[in-house]
Amino acid sequence: MMLTQENRNRHQQVRTGLKRGYPTDVKDEEWRLIAPLLSKQAKTGRPCKTDLRTVINALRYMVWSGCEWRMLPNDFPPYQTVYYWFRRLMRRMLFRTIHNLALMLDRLCNEREVLPSAGVVDSCLDMGDHIPTRSLPFFRARLLLSTLLNSVTQLPAP
Q1: What percentage of the chain carries pLDDT values higher than 90?
Q2: 3-state SS track over the chain
């Protein structure tokens, strides 16, 4: 069978028809709040072919399932692409910004001051016995990412 344009279109329809939604996918109202914070299309250079919504969906899937980069399902972009965007968004402090905005929105909806005047932190995280020392930075980054992404999923309804 030759790969004519007609066959390519048919295969593309079959491939995209198999995509299923995951419970961790970003909802439309959440995406409406997150999309303006993401990077815009550059005026020069090669246009971006990656859908950033699928990248965020892949990151949320990884946090909830605990899978490795290479174990991402085929419904998401390649793990190299997801990792590239993860590193880029972490460098821009995007997840911290989303967390702070979600916190401010939650405080506004509960008719409280936007910025808290006091806070109490009481936690003990002892991971030295269970995790090898050389992989501690990875686990700390995953813990931070899961905390920040979990706060985004708990946005109040507008």
Answers
A1: 9
A2: CCCCHHHHHHHHHHHHHCCCCCCCCCCHHHHHHHHHHCCCCCCCCCCCCCCHHHHHHHHHHHHHHCCCHHHCCCCCCCHHHHHHHHHHHHHCCHHHHHHHHHHHHHHHHCCCCCCCCCCCCCCCCCCCCCCCHHHHHHHHHHHHHHHHHHHHHCCCCC
Residue labelled with tokens 């995280």: 125
Asked whether residue 126 is assigned to any structural domain, the reply reads: no
If one counts the domains in the chain, the total is 1
Please give the structure tokens belonging to residue 78: 């390649």
Q: Which domain holds residue 103?
A: 24-31+50-113+131-158
pLDDT tens-digit profile of 55-111?
Answer: 989 998 998 888 888 999 888 999 999 999 999 888 888 878 877 877 887 788 888
**What is the rounded distance in angstroms from the CA atom of residue 120 to the CA atom of residue 140?**
21
The CB-side HSE value for 37 (13 A sphere, CA atoms) comes to 22
pTM: 0.58
CB of 37 closer than 8 Å to CB of 97? yes
